[in-house]
Design goal:
alpha/beta, 9-stranded mixed beta sheet, TIM Barrel, two-stranded antiparallel ribbon
């Protein structure tokens, strides 16, 4: 049974398949080429990350530095866009601005991790300017950051829990008292953390009782995908976009 939709962002028949960084297993994470491949496979939800450059441009990129996956170097927050734009993922793919992604893929809904505080205001300004409230869910490990986003943007903005919110929901699932933010629309969580299970039937039940979706990251093995879908989770984020597509097709829930 699907969870009642609390926000237009979550208006989707059945469990949601998220392409994590577009499908990071292909080695071209957070690039237009990889996002396009996910869309061509049928993905309509994509997870990405954003950082702000020194001059306030919002780049879709996971790391705070260019060093790991590009031929460039340095912290994005310390560099102007003019320098960042010349870096290439895998030696040939440019870094996209998030605004360009909203324009390039008008049918896609984006799950966006605001990786650092300087990215938050530019992200909220962009969502407001492009009226993309139904297309973007903002998340962060920092509960304070997503709470600040919610307060600044108001109820039109979809947000997920930060770490503190997830802990509160986990405690509630065990019958323990804990504060749980009412304005979130989803708990986006790992299957386990430091060897401690996060997602089980009690957790899913506690989330659904509060009208929250449960989205689990980052799941790449088919047996884990099946197990989580059997538990009733509402979404799975994966690096292996072909695998998740095949699993959902076999279960008749690929839409």
């Amino acid at each position: 049974m699907s969870t009642p939709t609390r926000h237009p962002y979550l208006d989707h028949p059945g469990p949601i398949a998220f392409a994590h960084r577009g499908g990071a297993a292909d080695g071209l994470e957070n690039t237009v080429t990889q996002f396009r491949r996910a869309v061509e496979l049928g993905y309509r939800y994509i997870e990405t990350d954003v950082h702000a450059t020194a001059d306030g441009r919002l780049v879709a990129f996971h790391d705070d530095t260019l060093d790991r996956v590009t031929d460039g170097a340095g912290r994005i927050a310390d560099l102007p866009w003019e320098d960042v734009r010349h870096a290439r993922v895998a030696g040939h793919e440019p870094l996209p601005l998030f605004e360009e992604l909203l324009e390039e893929f008008p049918e896609v809904r984006w799950n966006v991790d605001a990786k650092a505080e300087p990215a938050l205001r530019p992200l909220l300004d962009l969502i407001a300017r492009t009226d993309s409230y139904d297309r973007v869910c903002v998340g962060s490990f920092s509960e304070a950051r997503v709470l600040r986003a919610q307060r600044l943007a108001g109820p039109r903005l979809a947000t997920s829990f930060g770490t503190r919110g997830v802990v509160g929901l986990r405690l509630r699932s065990w019958g323990l008292p804990a504060a749980v933010r009412r304005s979130a629309v989803a708990a986006q969580v790992p299957e386990s953390q430091s060897g401690v299970p996060v997602v089980d039937r009690r957790f899913v039940r506690a989330a659904h009782a509060r009208g929250l979706h449960v989205h689990v990251w980052t799941i790449n093995e088919p047996e884990r995908m099946h197990r989580l879908l059997d538990l009733g989770v509402d979404g799975i984020m994966t690096d292996h976009i072909d695998t998740l597509r095949e699993v959902m097709q076999k279960r008749g829930v690929w839409f």
